[in-house]
Amino acid sequence: MDVFKRKTPEEILLSISKLHRGSLKIYIGAVSGSGKTYHMLREGHNLKGQGIDVVICAVSTLQRPETVEQLGDLERVPSIHWMKDGVEQKDLNLEALLERNPEVVLVDGLAHQNREGAQFPTRLEDIKYLLSHDISVISTVNVYELEGTKEVAHKLTGIEVGCCVPSDTLELADEVRLIDATPETILTRLGEGHLKGNKDAALFQRGNLGVLRELALRLVAEDVNDSLEAHREQMGFQGPSGATERIMVTTQYHWNGSIYVRRGQQIAKRLNGDLHVVTLRKKGKTLTKEAAAFRRSIMKLVEKVNGKFEELPISFRRCIPQILVDYANANHVTRIILGHSKQTKWQTFLQGSVINGVLKRTKNIDVFLVADRASQEGERILPAHIHTPKEPYKFRRLSKQEVEAKIEKIKRGRFKVYIGAAPGVGKTYTMLREGNDLLKKGIDVKIGLLETHGRIETTQQVGDLDILPRAEIQYQGVRLQEMDTEAIIRLRPEVVLVDELAHTNVPGSTNKKRYEDVLDILEAGISVISTVNVQHLESLNDAVEHITGIRVRETVPDSILRAADEVQLIDVSPQSLQLRMRDGKIYAMVKVDQALNNFFKTGNLIALRELALREIADDVDERLESMERKSSLRGPWRRKEVIYVCVTEISQADRLIRRGFRIAHRLKAVWHVSFIVARHTNDEWKTKLEMLEKLTIRLGGEFSYQEVLNRNQIPRDFAATASKAGATQIIVWKTDLIKKLLPHASKMDVLIVADYDSWQTSRNRVK
Predict the structure, then answer these.
(1) Helices 183-191 and 206-235, interaxial angle, to 10°?
(2) Three-state SS at 567
(3) How do residues 467-477 score in pLDDT, each as one tens digit?
(4) Strands 366-370 and 749-753
(5) What is the number of helices (H) and of strands (E) in the chain?
(6) Domains and CATH numbers, the chain
């Protein structure tokens, strides 16, 4: 982007108008009781502490103790009270607010409808009026109160929603922050009488709370993605960000066109990606009656599955790969879906191969080839319904093993994890606050391990909690400290707070990793509340390096999150996080500039935030599916998948294995790693091989190793092994062996993963 380019008169006027307009911040949650008002009021106190003039108007605490406490000494501008159906309503007193003229107004209920005869019919219009008078506003809204999600929420949960705001409301905001709360948290608050509502109402059913929570997570993730793309465009970055998937299906006006679209839609839903469908049409050529019918059918299907359809003109067949790749690059596509080639060797030689042409031109885009099972074996390509086994007869006597498994689950402590996009979002702060809340209820809570990093706000949250002494371990002549797991188990508190789940213990400790200590504590019947950042998840390690350029060394297996009873996201916007950093609330002031120019760069924080939102949305969806709900947003996965990851080189093998795991997990697939190489016997090779096997097993896959005499044998042997095992999809690097592998693998889906080294091109500026 040319920063020296002269602004147009319109751009100048827009910039000037923004100087005289207040800012809008919206707190969004799944349902009432998520904590939106609490956090809004807390921010009001923080702003007041910075010398900013803050008032509140039409704020509803609903007499929740924590929220009432947050009112503190904030100045209140009286609202206009009126009754509707026997319930008191509060309208903003615009005249009083303009006369008072504060810098910031805190106001609840963005979707509120005003009384008859009010200056404006809705609160949203009231807020726009205040913004136009250079008064900033912070407000709250529930996800089902947005027009765009109202219908989806009703369809999935049956909840009837009254007042709502236009679907583009979030786009008006300068900042949107999600207040995440697990269904367990909401139901606990309801049970304690801190929420208004009938506990038997549809809104407070556990499954419906999960659906609304996932809806909120995905909605904010989409909003964050828009801001990420705008930022990358402004900075001149090219290629996909690494935070989201965008699927492109290439098809023709043919009988199998709908099959490719359906396959693309299934993949896009499971990977939470956007779907683009493109067809190629020769310039000036009139379609046959049959082709025109297929065209209408495909366009209708793409519209039905919420995809984007485009028809790309071509002149010659040899232009096809370049046209497809140009479109993919322009639309930030991460995966191109094609059909297997049906050409003979001579046709490929004379006419060229579209697949080879695409592979040659793509750098940071995966290529997915749809299996050709239908034409060769007459199998159904569209997935058949997999019948869920019926629940065993309730009077059946449990086996000894089943009894033992249930007893172990009953004895095990409860596990909750707070997760965030980066250090400083407030995970430890929130964990300590919850610990004190539990302590007030008479629950025995101790701090097993706390890392405040010198943050004053965090230290203040320790309150009445006891911090257990750490164990001292002698290492290389130095006495170092670690969490005393044995002492915790011996003391047997009801709940223990453990910071930084991904921490690596000092050599000589009982366990290598802190999460292993946590598992021991849980097995002892002690509940644990812990914290972790999204970049520490094992399977996201490569995506995080792609986004930030930094390799995170300390990781936890993804299974740790799945083992948790609750996983709750602490969401903070990049602007707020960077402001905390500049104020010295995250790191010491001497480290601030370095952090802001590296890990805490705006683009990194936006992408990591989106990654965290999508990851927790997936976690919520997985939990909904485990409840056998049909209303999870991604929909049920009814195809039985078996995935084989083909590793032929030690270099970057761990990246391919992690990628295989993430895909297998999303598709609920059994997965294997097959390492086939020409003979290697040195000790260094064996060590690396053992590491790869451990990684595969840690992520829940099966690992096999095979040596061949000649490298050229690998494609045929691998395809035969995968086929014999009933593989439906194989995953391989884009190497020189691909051309030889594809003819042997036409009956399977093939995912050709872009070379990792080329990912770095997306971090380069356009020249």
Answers:
(1) 130
(2) strand
(3) 999 999 988 88
(4) antiparallel
(5) 30, 26
(6) 9-222 (3.40.50.300), 245-370 (3.40.50.620), 408-629 (3.40.50.300), 642-753 (3.40.50.620)
